[in-house]
């Protein structure tokens, strides 16, 4: 008798009973929303290498199918083009919910859709987690701390966010997404994880996504001036993507983690210093030019990663100079092939 014909099974939706009997317990069915994007595609690579079944749901707003090309022929891999603002029914054991534009020019392009993605998208994926009893991890952001008055930023800090500014669709969207996660946990017992990601960089970033590392590396490779916005004294802390993916997987698979966890590299640079490191890594002859600062730009950002170290046993290992060199190889190739991204 097909299992779904049993009305009790239909009511309880207990996916443990729907698992194919021949599947190894350590191999999971994992949904990655936003898996065609920069961080998502690196995460998918790792999960596929570990032998899991991976389903990617992505609208391809900023992501690209070519980021996942290597997995197309695998029977363990599936791609579904779908916007998470609409519900979707799947059977999964874990959900990594990354779908959301992340670079300022992407999330400001259609701010209402960004908000719908953060609220409705997260609501739909939490609903899926509730029905399937899947563990749910969301990639939140250091932007929930806004223009922080506490430095470095620890998870207990509530932030300093403008609710009506140009960045608010992203910052406030992620804040309400975190609230939704906690309400699904308290009200429905959904097993949630919140990663607060700090600026992450590496191969496969869209070349023209306007983020500082992709801009500087692209500019240096083309022999253009590096566009430092404002004085360049504002700070950020840059995490290489393989470190980031390690942190996300550890967070997903560590039992009994409560509260959000910062995942980022605590080595802090001014944007001027970043420009100098990019010059050293790519081309010492490029020049720097100064352009206007965008509204509400946070003046300083550096994660306190004590919790990630203590609870997950995680800390980043890739130095900025090494990460930039790895990224440069990818960017050179893509500039040569005319793959400029978005
Ligand atoms: P990205 O733009 O490369 O990836 C986002 C992916 O989500 C893309 O593939 C895009 O097509 C998809 N997407 C966007 N809206 C969607 C929707 N409504 N439905 C379905 N798919 C949708 O960005 P990224 O840098 O890889 O960021 C991934 C996640 O990490 C995001 O949630 C972002 O907020 C978070 N994050 C990233 C950083 C960073 O520095 N890269 C920092 C903080 C948080
Ligand atoms: N920035 C810059 N030049 C650029 C792009 C960004 O100086 O070409 C600065 C920007 O003003 C901000 C920092 O770099 O202070 C990080 O910007 P990004 O958009 O990468 O990420 P954010 O942390 O602001 O989301």
From TrEMBL:
Which cofactor does the UniProt annotation name? NAD(+)
Q: Where is the NAD(P)-binding domain?
A: 31-327
The subcellular location is: Cytoplasm; Golgi apparatus, Golgi stack membrane
Which domain of life, per UniProt?
Eukaryota
Shown residues within the full chain: 67 to 408 of 408
What is the protein's name according to its record? UDP-glucuronate decarboxylase
The UniProt keyword set, sorted, is:
Cytoplasm, Decarboxylase, Golgi apparatus, Lyase, Membrane, NAD, Signal, Signal-anchor, Transmembrane, Transmembrane helix
Q: Which GO terms describe its cellular component?
A: Golgi cisterna membrane
* Biological source species: Chondrus crispus (Carrageen Irish moss)
**What is its membrane topology?**
Single-pass type II membrane protein
Q: What is its EC number?
A: 4.1.1.35
């Amino acid at each position: 008798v097909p299992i779904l014909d049993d009305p009790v099974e239909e009511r309880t939706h207990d996916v443990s009973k729907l698992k194919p009997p021949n599947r190894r317990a350590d191999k999971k069915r994992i949904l990655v929303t936003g898996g065609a994007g920069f961080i998502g595609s690196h995460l998918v690579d790792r999960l596929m290498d570990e032998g899991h079944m991976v389903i990617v749901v992505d609208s391809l707003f900023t992501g690209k199918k070519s980021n996942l090309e290597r997995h197309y022929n695998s029977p363990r891999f599936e791609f579904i083009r779908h916007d998470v603002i609409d519900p979707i029914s799947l059977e999964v054991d874990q959900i990594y919910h990354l779908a959301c534009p992340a670079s300022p020019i992407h999330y400001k392009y259609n701010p209402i859709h960004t908000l719908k993605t953060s609220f409705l998208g997260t609501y739909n994926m939490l609903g899926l987690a509730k029905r399937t009893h899947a563990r749910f991890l969301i990639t939140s952001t250091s932007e929930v701390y806004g223009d922080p008055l506490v430095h470095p930023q620890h998870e207990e800090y509530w932030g300093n966010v403008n609710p009506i500014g140009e960045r608010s669709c992203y910052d406030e969207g992620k804040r309400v997404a975190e609230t939704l996660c906690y309400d699904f946990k308290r009200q429905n017992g959904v097993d949630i994880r919140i990663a607060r990601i700090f600026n992450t960089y590496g191969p496969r970033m869209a070349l023209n996504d306007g983020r500082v590392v992709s801009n500087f590396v692209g500019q240096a490779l083309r022999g253009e001036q590096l566009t430092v916005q404002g004085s360049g004294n504002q700070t950020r802390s840059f995490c290489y993507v393989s470190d980031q993916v390690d942190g996300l997987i550890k967070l997903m698979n560590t039992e009994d983690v409560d509260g959000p966890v910062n995942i980022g590299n605590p080595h802090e640079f001014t944007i001027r210093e970043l420009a100098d490191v990019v010059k050293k890594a790519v081309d010492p002859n490029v020049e720097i030019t100064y352009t206007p600062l965008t509204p509400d730009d946070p003046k300083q950002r550096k994660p306190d990663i004590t919790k990630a170290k203590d609870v997950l046993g995680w800390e980043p290992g890739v130095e900025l100079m090494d990460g930039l060199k790895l990224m440069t190889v990818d960017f050179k190739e893509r500039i040569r092939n005319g793959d400029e991204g978005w």
